[in-house]
Each structure stands twice: as C-alpha cells, then as structure tokens.
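In response to the reviewer comment on reproducibility (Comment 2.3), we provide here a single inverse folding case reported in full, input and output, so that an independent group could reproduce the run without further information from us. The structure tokens appear first.
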C-alpha cells in the first residue's frame, strides 16, 4: 500500500469529520482538544504533509517558518483567515485554504437571533425569570424595539450579509448597506448602497457587521462612528470582535445612547471584556455563529476537500486564499 499523506489536526473536530480524515489520510488527531504550543505543533508536524487548523490558533510567520519543509497546505476550518500569515505561507510555498459558503446560513441565523434577542431584551427577560424575580405581567414590562419597518444597515454585503438581508426582509426590515463594490440589482433586491460606512451609519437603526477583520477594519466601530448611529440604535456583531472598540461600545450601551447590542464575537477571544457580563442591554454569546451539526460537518468536509485536492489528487485546492 502506498503511504497515505499525513495531516495534523490542531483541534478536536466533529466525529464525522475526523472519521473522514482518518479514512483518507494518516491523521494525527487531537482527541483531548489540547491547546498546542508552537513547539508541540512543530513537533507533531514533523514528516507531515498538511495541517488542519481552526481560527482559535495563530499561525503566524514565526510558526510558519518553523514548520517542516514537508508541509504543503494549511487548511483552516473557518471562513475567516486573519489568524494565518498568508504571505509568510506563500513565501514557503504552502497553500492556505478556508471553508466559505457552508457557514453562511448558520451565521446569518445567529445574526438574526442576536438582532431579535437584543431588540426584544431577551437577556433581561430570561434573567428575570431564572432569578425568580418575575412578579407577573405588567403593561410596561421589558418593552423592546420592533423590527418591522426599521432600517437595517449591513457593513459588508458578502455571502453572510446577503443571507441576513434575506432574513431581515422577511421580518419587514428595509436594507441599507456599505460594501466596497455595489452589488448587482439581482443581488441588491432593493437594498440601498452607500459608498462609505460613514454615510450608512446615520440611517442604521440596526447595524450588523459582516466584514472581515483586516488592518482597515480594526476598531472600525470606534467612538466617532458609533456616534453617527441614530439614538437608540442596535449593534450586532457576528464577524470579529476586533472590528468594534469595546471601550466605546460599552460607554454607548451604558449611557443608553445605543439601545442594545448583540455580540457573538469578542476582541481577544476567548478573553472577553468582563464588563459586558454586567451590561443588561448586551445580549452575548460565545462565538456560536457556525455551531450547528450540519455546518460544522460541512466545514470539516470542505477543509478535507482542500486537503484531498492538494495531497491526494495533486490539483489546485477549490478554496485557496491568497495574500
Ligand atoms: C468558526 C468563524 O467556528 O469560520 C469562521 O471564520 O468565525 C467560525 O464560524 C471558527 O472560526 C472556527 O475555526
């Protein structure tokens, strides 16, 4: 039997994904899901052909330079790839791939969940009930904000932004968006395009972030831009925590300048600015955007398709990302 390519998995992936990995490759798994130091990862990668990583571990230039020359592909189990130094990988002739499309619906669903939960004060209601503080219905209790007829601003109208727009339209919202390039009329479906984020913000009674984290979008939502949102706006972030300036957002939520926020991602994850825990108008989740069984399996299979193309079929990977 010919030697099967060796793939190192840096995390414990869903069972069906690991089974497929093992059926196709000589897979070095991480069943305990231990956080691997760079030293450990470099040791595990000796003689290996590919890595399957997740967005939770930095694959920086230092690590890439230390990888053995046998590594030909780094397949990330994520659509985002800001954790990988692509230029450093390219310099060493290592291909980098991601998992687009398959998590679009799941992430849009979580964005809608955050939008509804933040607007309708779900956290406060649930906490009141669980802490046995509910003394009964009153005409003015926990009044939130309705979605129908409101303007939703979307920053980044790619796949996930468009999927959220679809769902928001079904809830009676009007879609306004910023994207570097304007979409075609078929994709826009009546959404209104703005050439700058600054032009969009004053329109956005709700604002949802769907752009990647890049040097240009770090702290995009800073105090100045948050102040451009209408009084009582709701901010949703399912993209990356680093796009929002926590200091500015916390101040805006505390002062009620913003009515609420729904956050699935945090700057410096898994460390979270603990002040959010005490902010009742923040509905927060621990990065669950793609966390459905179907989606996580599909992400794994997509990562495997890329590994297979490069390491078994000797072809270009279907989902290569470039510097
Ligand atoms: C992943 C994500 O769960 O794909 C992404 O970019 O943010 C999440 O859906 C996570 O990054 C796992 O690698």
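Designed residues, in position order:
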């Amino acid at each position: 039997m010919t030697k099967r390519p060796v793939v190192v998995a840096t995390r414990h992936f869903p069972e069906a994904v690991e089974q497929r990995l093992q059926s196709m490759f000589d897979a070095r798994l991480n069943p305990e899901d231990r956080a691997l130091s760079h030293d450990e990862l470099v040791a595990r990668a000796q003689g290996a052909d590919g890595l399957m990583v997740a967005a939770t571990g930095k694959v920086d230039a230092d690590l890439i330079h230390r990888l053995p020359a046998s590594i030909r592909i780094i397949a990330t189990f994520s659509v985002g790839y800001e954790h990988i130094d692509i230029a450093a990988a390219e310099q060493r002739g290592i291909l980098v791939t991601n998992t687009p499309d398959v998590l679009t619906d799941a992430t849009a669903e979580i964005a809608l969940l955050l939008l509804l939960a933040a607007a309708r004060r779900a956290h406060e209601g649930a906490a009141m009930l669980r802490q046995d503080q509910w003394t009964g219905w009153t005409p003015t209790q926990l009044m939130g904000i309705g979605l129908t007829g409101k303007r939703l601003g979307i920053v980044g109208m790619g796949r996930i932004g468009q999927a959220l727009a679809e769902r928001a339209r079904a809830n009676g919202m009007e879609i306004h968006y910023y994207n570097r390039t304007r979409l075609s009329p078929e994709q826009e479906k009546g959404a209104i395009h703005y050439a700058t984020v600054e032009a969009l913000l004053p329109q956005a009674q709700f604002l949802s972030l769907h752009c990647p984290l890049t040097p240009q979008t770090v702290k995009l939502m800073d105090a100045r831009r948050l102040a451009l949102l209408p009084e009582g706006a709701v901010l949703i972030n399912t993209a990356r925590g680093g796009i929002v300036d926590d200091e500015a957002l916390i101040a805006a939520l505390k002062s009620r300048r913003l009515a609420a926020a729904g956050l699935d991602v945090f700057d410096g994850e898994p460390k979270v600015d603990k002040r959010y825990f005490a902010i009742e108008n923040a509905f927060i989740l621990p990065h669950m955007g793609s966390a459905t069984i179907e989606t996580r399996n599909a992400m794994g299979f997509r990562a495997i398709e890329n590994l297979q193309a490069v390491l078994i079929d000797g072809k270009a990977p279907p989902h290569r990302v470039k510097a």
